[in-house]
């Protein structure tokens, strides 16, 4: 319960608890830092402990994600009417039908188209070149094919229904009309998509965005055709982040000459990122990831292991970048590390090594003595906060150095005291300055056995004699009153 109290033989602590033995090998582990464990070579072999070295390697990782096949929107055409009218004939019957460039799509009757044709016929009859040119331009603006215009110029007859043709080769998608439909400008009658090339819309994590750029090679596989791979490239990395999923969209492009890839298919893709600068790397299996901390198990040699905290960077398929916490060449456990970590993390401070270079060995602090255990050379003191050691104000037990006159300390004594760390979790009072009870000033000369004046020591002897007589009278009174004796003891 109190690591400050140690003896070289069995016994009980001031709190009445049995002392437990601490062997030399345990002391050696503690010297290596909190959380250091020692395992025999036989156990190391039995649990299959393997170690690897942290080393600088070029960042070359593959990003695996999923995506959906989409039309190449650069070659996706939407069909909209530019006049009001009725669909008299629909040559395309269902979405997904393949069509070729110039193939008839639908025939439309529109009074506006009839009037435009009559204007052309009238201009031809008058042989007015300007009117003929204006009439032809109007028909072209209404998407009338050149073949239809040439036929009107030859026959000088108006067609009641005009046929419209496919602008490109592909397949029909989003077919929204049937024969007899009334249509007007703004309606999307259908779309024509080219499947010679397709897009794949994939998503990557926010931390992976900087690793992906246009032109990188991509490998894609599909579940319905196992064993086959498609080679493509990154076409575009979208500039915005999805605020809900915290992912970035990436557009991939693949050739599809055999039309095997179909829109909305589910695909697995692997993006080969460019080889970057060398970073300190570890095998991914050596990293222990928890909810709030990443750590590894250091192999200190001679069967000693210790869990330490690290900061991980980019995580690839086989290696992970270590930003801080490790040095090149250090040995890290890569197999059975979870068993070692579970034992080490019970007492580990998760620092690299146990060192005190950033904290002083001793500090001065104001304190008040709560009780004195003269037979153990220990005191219980309440001290102020110690910022140098990140200690809050608290009450704890301290060993008193042999150089200090223990009789100068009693319950209620106000003092400045020097606390020195003499071992692992072992703290000792090595010097004291007792405050003057009259004016609160601090006596700047430390009270030790070696530098106290002879007159002060004689006064202490007289004071001790008086205190001894008073203690004897008190013991007699306590013997006569058992209840009073129990309360005094409890107060202690």
UniProtKB/TrEMBL annotation:
Ranges of compositional bias, category Polar residues: 440-454, 463-477
* Pfam families from the UniProt entry: 3HB_CusB, Beta-barrel_RND_2, BSH_CusB, CusF_Ec
Q: Where is the CusB-like three alpha-helical bundle domain?
A: 112-160
Q: Name one GO cellular component term.
A: outer membrane-bounded periplasmic space
Q: Which InterPro entries match?
A: 3HB_CusB, Beta-barrel_RND_2, BSH_CusB, CusF_Ec, CusF_sf, MFP_Cation_Efflux, RND_pump_MFP
Q: Which Gene3D superfamilies match?
A: 2.40.30.170, 2.40.420.20, 2.40.50.100, 6.10.140.730, Copper binding periplasmic protein CusF
Identify this protein by name: Cobalt/zinc/cadmium efflux RND transporter, membrane fusion protein, CzcB family
């Amino acid at each position: 319960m109190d690591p400050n109290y140690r003896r070289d033989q069995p016994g009980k602590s001031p709190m009445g608890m049995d002392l437990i033995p601490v062997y030399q090998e345990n002391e050696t582990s503690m010297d290596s830092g909190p959380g250091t464990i020692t395992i025999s070579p036989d156990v190391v072999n039995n649990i299959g402990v393997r170690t690897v070295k942290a080393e600088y390697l070029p960042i070359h990782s593959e990003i695996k994600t999923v995506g959906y096949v989409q039309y190449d929107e650069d070659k996706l055409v939407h069909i909209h009417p530019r006049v009001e009218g009725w669909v008299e004939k629909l040559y395309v019957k269902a979405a997904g039908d393949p069509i070729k460039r110039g193939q008839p799509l639908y025939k439309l009757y529109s009074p506006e188209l009839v009037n435009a044709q009559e204007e052309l016929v009238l201009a031809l009859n008058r042989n007015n070149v300007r009117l003929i040119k204006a009439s032809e331009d109007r028909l072209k603006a209404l998407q009338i094919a050149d073949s239809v215009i040439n036929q009107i110029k030859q026959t000088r007859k108006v067609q009641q229904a005009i046929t419209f043709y496919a602008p490109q080769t592909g397949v029909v998608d989003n077919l929204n009309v049937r024969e007899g439909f009334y249509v007007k400008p703004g309606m999307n009658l259908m779309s024509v998509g080219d499947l010679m090339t397709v897009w794949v819309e994939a998503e990557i994590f926010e931390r992976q965005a900087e690793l992906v750029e246009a032109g990188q090679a991509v490998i894609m596989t599909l579940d319905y055709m196992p064993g086959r791979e498609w080679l493509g490239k990154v076409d575009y990395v979208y500039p915005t982040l999805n605020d809900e999923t915290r992912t970035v969209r990436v557009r991939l492009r693949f050739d599809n000459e055999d039309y095997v890839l179909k829109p909305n298919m589910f695909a697995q893709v692997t993006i080969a990122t460019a080889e970057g600068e060398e970073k300190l790397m570890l095998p991914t299996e050596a990293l222990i990831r928890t909810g709030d901390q990443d750590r590894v198990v250091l192999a200190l040699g001679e069967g000693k292991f210790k869990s330490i905290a690290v900061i991980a960077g980019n995580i690839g398929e086989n290696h992970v970048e270590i930003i801080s916490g490790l040095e090149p060449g250090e040995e890290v456990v890569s197999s059975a590390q979870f068993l070692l970590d579970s034992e080490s993390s019970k007492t580990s401070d998760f620092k690299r090594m146990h060192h005190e270079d950033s904290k002083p060995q001793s500090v001065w602090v104001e304190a008040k003595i709560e009780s004195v255990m003269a037979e153990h050379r220990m005191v219980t003191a309440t001290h102020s906060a110690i910022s140098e050691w990140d200690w809050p104000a608290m009450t704890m037990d301290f060993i008193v150095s042999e150089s200090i006159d223990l009789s100068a300390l009693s319950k209620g004594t106000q003092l400045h005291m020097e606390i020195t760390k003499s071992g692992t979790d072992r703290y000792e009072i090595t010097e004291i300055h007792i405050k003057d009870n009259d004016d609160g000033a601090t006596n700047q000369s430390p009270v030790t056995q070696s530098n106290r004046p002879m007159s002060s020591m004689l006064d202490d002897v007289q004071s001790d004699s008086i205190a001894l007589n008073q203690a004897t009278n008190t013991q007699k009174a306590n013997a006569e009153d058992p209840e009073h004796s129990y309360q005094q003891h409890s107060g202690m």
